[in-house]
UniProtKB/TrEMBL annotation:
It comes from the Bacteria. This is Putative membrane protein. Keywords: Membrane, Transmembrane, Transmembrane helix. It comes from Nostocoides jenkinsii Ben 74. Residues 99-257 form the Thioredoxin-like fold domain. Residues 1-17 have a biased composition (Polar residues). Pfam families: Thioredoxin_4. The chain crosses the membrane at residues 39-59. Coiled coil: none annotated.
């Protein structure tokens, strides 16, 4: 009897390529899906990085704003209401060095004139350690209805946060706006730019000034100054507790030298 030809071997031979093709497609699909997952994960990581970066900026801004919202009690680094801001704290003082306290208001035209005449002598005294030099920044001229004294003073202390107090101080007097003028943040920002602040540093400074981080410190310094006997206004120079009347830079240098000897 003739037997029907067996097809089992043929069938096994023909299914092998199909099985391999199916496996290849499965691997391709898995690889394709994995690549997509990697792309999705990378995208999520990138988005999270942006969120955290933006969140950090917002947090810093809120931190500055909270200084005022919590009562504005921020005190400039190295400063105190009674002791002022010592600008040569890193300088080794000579033996018996006196304290030279300078009281100024950034809106005061006479303060600008004083800095123009005595600024170089004061810098030499500070840099050489002949005296401990402290600045007391007031805002009493704003009592006439302006904002210039307080905003520029905030600008100086916000610049101090970035190591630029004297640079800002000098720029503010060089470009001083007329007494009685109200000023904008953009106007005061020109002093910060002249002091060397730019980019993110300038933005940080602007946020600091905008929220008035040091306003209460400035007000308290102003109040304390007018409690000093015979204090009338700015500029005022006090050497070891004695109010000076000065005519020349040389007279100031001599007074400081004599105070160190005595």
């Amino acid at each position: 009897m003739a037997k029907q030809p067996s097809t089992n071997r043929a069938n096994r031979g023909s299914s092998a390529p199909q099985d391999r093709a199916a496996k290849i497609q499965a691997v391709q699909k898995a690889t394709s899906t994995g690549g997509a997952n990697k792309i999705v994960i990378a995208g999520i990581v990138a988005i999270l990085a942006i969120v955290f970066a933006v969140g950090g900026v917002i947090w810093n801004q809120k931190s500055n704003e909270s200084d005022v919202a919590a009562g504005g009690n921020s005190v400039p680094a190295g400063a105190s209401v009674d002791g002022g801001l010592v600008t040569n704290a890193s300088v080794k003082l000579v033996d018996g060095a006196p304290t030279l306290a300078l009281y100024e208001d950034f809106q005061c035209p006479n303060c600008k004139a004083f800095e123009g005449a005595f600024g170089s002598a004061i810098k030499e005294i500070a840099d050489s350690g002949k005296a401990k030099v402290s600045y007391h920044i007031l805002n009493f001229l704003d009592e006439r209805g302006t904002n210039q004294s307080t905003m520029v003073a905030n600008g100086a202390f916000c610049a101090l946060d970035q190591g630029k107090f004297m640079e800002f101080h000098n720029a503010a007097y060089a470009g001083q706006y007329p007494e009685g003028d109200k000023v904008t943040l953009d106007q005061v920002s020109t002093f910060a730019t002249a002091a060397g602040l730019s980019g993110d540093a300038l933005k940080t400074w602007q946020t600091c000034v905008k929220v008035g981080k040091y306003t209460n410190f400035i007000k308290d310094t102003n109040t304390a100054a007018f409690k000093i006997a015979n204090f009338k206004g700015t500029p005022t120079v006090i050497l070891n507790g004695e109010m000076l009347t000065l005519s020349t830079p040389e007279a100031l240098t001599k007074a400081v030298t004599d105070a160190a000897k005595g």
